Write a sequence for this structure.
């Protein structure tokens, strides 16, 4: 066997040391590279989150800017519309003011007949085509006992707008307790009406009924006609369905948001959007009962005497805008809805769509009732008329609420899905909390054990150990063949690989213990979230059932309303007349 060459051995030793150092440096660089990759990934995630936040901030800014722009445009345009209304129809306002003034002047007798005649005839010249001007001329002529002029002016007023003129003269005559003449005008008005195409001023008739402004002869005539129209239109299911649908949309708009009190369940249940919608849909019944009780709570004090009652109705008749003004009034209402919605055109369009029947020039009798109940101020209905209309519409309201209740019950999910830590489950009436907790804990423990089993003597460690064995075998062969230097080099390499493999193998138990500790913490946190989510689900179900129980209470309350109870008696009539 050749003697060992000391210089060669030193060179080989240095080479082995260099290889070892290079291996260590490579391992260090790998760690640095992995750290850099982790840092880049974390930076990328942070940058992505910041971009999402920036996008959300930008979208919110753009949205606010759009709303601000819409609001400014609406304010500008509504001023222009109102100026145009004032320019084109402002003279109508003068005639309307004169109507009530003339009647009040007649009461106190301090305005001369010549003054009333002069004003009414002047406005007749200034408002060609407007029905109220000749009506006032006729009224002034009647006051000063000029039957020829009164007859001519009356005929002209009827020619221009038969319906409004008929109501006007009926109310004026009723104001002076000319009940027979009032009944003739009312009969003429009613005979001309098509219950499927009533004009906007028909709400005046409802006001006269509800406030007791009709005379002994006119009141039963009107009530009988309204009853006949109501029964006839209610026999048409399509007509009724339109009203039920309106009330259904109105009631559904009373939803109460669920608020932020539920935190865990939304994060672990894919079914949360359905649960949220289910709860909010059930809140409409309690809100509706609260709303209607507010409308019907307390008396609606009518004006003290007949003159005041009739004057209030006459104000509604003469101040209600005419067909010529309708396009501009509708545009004004649309712009006002944008202003009310703080520039949100979508919300404004939705509100306008719901109120569209109020702005139509002709509607059926059932729609008139719904308009008076839903939009009393916009349709010109008094609080008493609103109560009267709601009582007549109670069947549609109850049916609409019933549809919402049935849809809400049908939408209840058969099972609630849960998903966390890669574990999924379905919760139904047969599922116990213990079973869910056990299933989640078993899932986390199984994943932990898989992670523990993955930490074993394999991969680079096994490769290094195998490499050490191979190098040892090669060193043995080299030594037997006389290659001592090469054998030493192989032995040094085997020592390095074997030492590194042994070092890494010694750390395996500690790594397994750490994984188990992390698994226990993960299991405890997951079980805590699961229990919190289950508790919130129980609370939500309880709240939903309590809100849904309000449907029966609301139905009972509405069914007790009686339309006849909201028909007031006139001051000059005996109770029951």
């Amino acid at each position: 066997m050749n003697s060992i060459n000391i210089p060669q051995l030193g060179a080989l030793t240095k080479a082995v040391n260099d290889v070892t150092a290079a291996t260590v440096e490579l391992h260090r660089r790998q760690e640095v590279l992995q750290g850099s990759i982790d840092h880049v990934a974390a930076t990328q995630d942070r940058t992505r989150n910041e971009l999402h936040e920036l996008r959300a901030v930008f979208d919110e800014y753009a949205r606010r800017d759009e709303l601000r722009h819409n609001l400014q445009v609406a304010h500008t345009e509504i001023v222009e519309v109102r100026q145009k209304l004032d320019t084109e129809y402002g003279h109508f306002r003068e005639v309307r003011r004169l109507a009530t003034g003339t009647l009040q002047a007649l009461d106190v007798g301090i305005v001369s007949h010549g003054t009333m005649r002069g004003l009414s005839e002047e406005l007749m010249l200034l408002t060609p085509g407007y029905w109220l001007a000749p009506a006032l001329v006729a009224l002034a002529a009647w006051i000063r006992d000029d039957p020829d002029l009164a007859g001519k002016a009356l005929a002209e007023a009827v020619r221009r707008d038969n319906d409004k003129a008929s109501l006007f003269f009926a109310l004026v005559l009723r104001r002076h307790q000319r009940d027979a003449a009032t009944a003739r005008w009312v009969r003429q008005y009613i005979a001309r009406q098509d219950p499927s195409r009533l004009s906007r001023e028909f709400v005046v008739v409802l006001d006269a009924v509800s406030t007791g402004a009709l005379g002994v002869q006119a009141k039963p005539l009107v009530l009988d006609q309204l009853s006949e129209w109501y029964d006839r239109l209610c026999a048409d299911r399509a007509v009724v369905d339109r009203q039920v649908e309106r009330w259904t949309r109105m009631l559904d708009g009373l939803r109460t948001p669920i608020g932020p009190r539920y935190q865990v369940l939304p994060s672990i249940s894919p079914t949360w959007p359905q649960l949220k919608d289910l709860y909010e849909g059930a809140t409409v019944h309690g809100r509706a009962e609260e709303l209607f009780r507010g409308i019907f709570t307390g008396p609606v004090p009518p004006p003290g005497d007949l003159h005041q009652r009739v004057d209030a109705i006459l104000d509604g008749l003469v101040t209600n805008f005419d067909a010529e003004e309708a396009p501009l009034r509708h545009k004004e209402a649309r712009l006002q809805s944008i202003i009310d919605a703080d520039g949100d055109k979508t919300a404004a369009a939705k509100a306008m769509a719901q109120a569209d029947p109020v702005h139509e020039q002709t509607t059926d009798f059932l729609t008139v009732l719904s308009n008076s109940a839903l939009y009393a101020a916009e349709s010109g209905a008094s609080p008493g008329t609103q109560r009267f209309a709601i009582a007549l519409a109670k069947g549609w309201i109850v049916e609409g609420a019933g549809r919402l209740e049935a849809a809400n019950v049908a939408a209840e999910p058969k099972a609630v899905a849960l998903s966390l830590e890669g574990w999924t489950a379905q919760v139904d009436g047969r599922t116990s909390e213990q079973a869910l907790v056990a299933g989640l804990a078993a899932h986390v423990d199984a994943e932990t054990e898989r992670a523990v089993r993955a930490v074993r003597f394999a991969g680079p460690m096994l490769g290094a150990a195998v490499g050490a064995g191979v190098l040892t075998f090669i060193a043995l062969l080299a030594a037997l063949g006389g290659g001592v230097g090469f054998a030493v080099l192989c032995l040094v390499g085997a020592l390095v690989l074997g030492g590194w493999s042994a070092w890494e193998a010694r750390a395996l138990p500690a790594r397994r213990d750490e994984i188990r500790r992390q698994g226990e913490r993960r299991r405890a946190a997951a079980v805590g979230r699961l229990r919190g989510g289950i508790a919130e689900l129980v609370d939500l179900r309880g709240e939903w059932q309590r809100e849904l129980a309000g449907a029966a209470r609301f139905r009972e309350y509405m069914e007790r309303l009686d339309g006849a109870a909201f028909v007031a008696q006139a001051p000059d009539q005996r109770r029951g007349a």
In short: Confidence is low (pLDDT under 50) at residues 1-5. Residues 229 and 421 are 64 Å apart (CA to CA). The two ends are 142 Å apart (CA to CA).
